[in-house]
Amino acid sequence: MKLDGIFLDMYGTLTAGDRAAVESVCKHLVTDFHLGLPPHALAVEWGTRFFVEIERCNGPAFKTLFDLEKSTLIGTMSHHGVTFDPTPYTNRLREYWRNPPLHPEVRDTLARLGLPVFIVSNADRDDIERALANNGLSHVPFVTSECARSYKPDAAVFRAALARTGWDPRRVIHVGDSLHSDVGGAKSLGLRTGWLCREDRILDVGQAEPDVVFSHLGELADWAHRQRSDAA
């Protein structure tokens, strides 16, 4: 079937994931508060708490990603008997969100796709605007969780993207690195789904089955060319 366009996740898909940034924050926390566990274990604990909370933050209960990271970090550290101000630590994470490095194949892939792309990201609007500008991609349109007051896999953020683009959901593939947020969320609206399996996530609670699996974005461009050839 001919595609109207491609939805792309941002962090972990177009840019490096936040694993290094999160573990760096956790390394500082372990050192500063003399915690008796390794940074990776703290990162997993924080991430587990974050995934629980983010599911509760759609619609009227919406919180920004930055506020969610702060509140779940407070809860995580409280579990270890620490009361503190999380802001200096979550600010380190925000620095990453605003300056994430692109994966090396991204520019070539975007040039070769031959289809319009639209970013659908669990992110705060200001952070993704800065990230795109810092990577020379200000021209790429997007919708964020903050724009839609909805976090993937909730359907509202995908509906917002479809409303902005006017694309038929049956003629869209959404590609991202999370089985839970990206694949599970997009499938609920009947979009085709691609899982970018880079295998460097700290944690993914998803088990959804994607339509296509890519090991890097260059494979997405090859796949898109085959779809156009088959539709011709």
The chain-level mean pLDDT equals: 94
Main sheet record: 6 strands, parallel
Question: What's the helical proportion of residues?
Answer: 40-55%
Low-confidence stretches: none
Write the CATH architecture name of the largest domain: 3-Layer(aba) Sandwich
Strand order of the largest sheet: 3-2-1-4-5-6
CATH homology-level superfamily of the largest domain? HAD superfamily/HAD-like
In DSSP terms, counting alpha (H) and pi (I) runs of 4 or more, how many helices? Answer: 10
* Amino-to-carboxy terminus distance: 9 Å
Give the class from helix and strand content and strand pairing. Answer: alpha/beta
What is the gyration radius calculated from CA atoms? 18 Å
Give the overall shape: elongated
Q: Tell me the strand percentage band.
A: 5-15%
What is the count of structural domains? 2
- The level 1 CATH classification of the largest domain is Alpha Beta
User: What pattern of helices and strands is seen along the backbone?
Assistant: EHHHHHEHEHHEHEEH
Q: Total number of β-strand segments? A: 6
> The CATH topology of the largest domain is what?
Rossmann fold
